[in-house]
Specification:
With 331 residues, the chain is α/β, with parallel strands linked by helices. It is built from eleven helices and ten strands. Strands 1, 2, 3, 4, 5, 6, 7, 8, 9 and 10 form a ten-stranded mixed sheet that branches.
Length: 331
């Protein structure tokens, strides 16, 4: 009888403990992903670009770490704005993350007269993946060998030198506008539908110059078809140690990086954000992913979510000034 009473008491105590545990599950489970419900990694650009490629590098190991599939969903359009607007309206439950960029989360808010999301208020920063500095290049047949040569020639030419880009509002275009804003020298922007045709016209000499990532212009520099003039990073690149930075070349404070980050919808619980950040940073730290990032011309980052948020605010303010000065608007 005494043993039976003890069993009943133990069962009752266990039931009370279980009830208490279940009652606290909503708070505890916020940082966990039950197996079976996939996470959507929304890429606001078409397949094949840097944002899409990075998402595919991260998705499989992230899914393995969280115990649930991570599915890529491409929703391209308007420089990342279409997909970002969709992500902004998604439930803040940890089952959707977004590949955000300098375009979608810093520049577009100043470019587009009506944006269906706020790049800061609509999202919770999760992780900075890295930043890809740009390289200013000219054809190998060009007489320009330094940034001062480029600025002097552009100042002397009506309308300025022509500069190609992958499209209006892209980071190569905005790097050009930032250079114009800071130096006071005008250029003629020549937008293309992608970096491929843009770089070909620079190689052939039809366009005077362009900014783009080492992923795009690197092979042409190695082949001798393009001459690097300056890099937009704060420090010289390991891959181009003899090429000065734009800041070194006389434009102090000039720095542009085509950055890639991960965001979640606003109000996503902090335990969810922290877990996502932790797992993504572990993936980014692996030698394989470090090598992949560097092959894209990207410098890996270790920013915390809070640091990413502050960095993003500074980027929004910076590009607002540049866009206003250049008078750029996209319908």
């Amino acid at each position: 009888m005494q043993r039976r009473t003890l069993i009943h008491r133990s069962l009752a105590t266990g039931t009370l403990l279980l009830t208490g545990t279940l009652a606290s599950l909503p708070a505890m489970a916020q940082g966990q992903w039950p197996t079976g419900k996939p996470i959507t990694y929304l890429v606001p650009f078409a397949p094949g670009g840097n944002t899409d490629t990075l998402a595919r590098v991260i998705a499989q190991p992230l899914g393995a770490a969280l115990g649930t599939p991570v599915v890529i969903d491409n929703k391209g359009g308007a420089g990342g704005s279409v997909g970002s607007a969709i992500a902004a309206r998604a439930p803040a439950d940890g089952y959707l993350i977004l590949g955000g960029t300098i375009s979608s989360h810093a520049i577009n808010v100043s470019l587009y007269p009506k944006l269906d999301y706020d790049p800061i208020k609509s999202f919770a920063p999760v992780a900075m993946l890295g930043s890809g500095p740009l390289v200013l290049v000219v054809p190998s047949s060009s007489p320009y060998k330094t940034l001062n040569d480029v600025l002097a020639a552009s100042k002397a030419k009506p309308g300025g030198l022509s500069s190609a880009s992958a499209g209006t509002g892209t980071s190569p275009h905005m790097a050009l506008e930032f250079l114009a804003y800071q130096s006071g020298v005008k250029f003629t922007h020549v937008p293309y539908k992608g970096s491929g045709p843009a770089v070909q016209d620079v190689v052939s000499g039809q366009v005077d110059m362009m900014f783009d990532t080492t992923l795009i212009v690197g092979p042409h520099i190695q082949s001798g078809k393009l001459r690097p003039i300056a890099v937009t990073s704060a420090k010289r690149l390991e891959s181009l140690p003899d090429v000065p930075t734009v800041a070194e070349s006389g434009q102090k404070g000039f720095e542009v990086g085509s950055w890639q980050a991960v965001f979640a919808p606003a109000h996503t619980p902090k335990p969810v954000v922290d877990r996502l950040h932790s797992e993504i940073m572990k993936i980014i730290a692996t030698p394989e992913v470090q090598a992949r990032l560097k092959s894209f011309g990207m410098l890996p980052s270790s920013m915390s979510p809070a640091e990413l948020g502050e960095f993003q605010k500074a980027e929004v303010a910076k590009w607002a000034q540049v866009v206003k000065s250049a008078g750029i608007k996209v319908d």
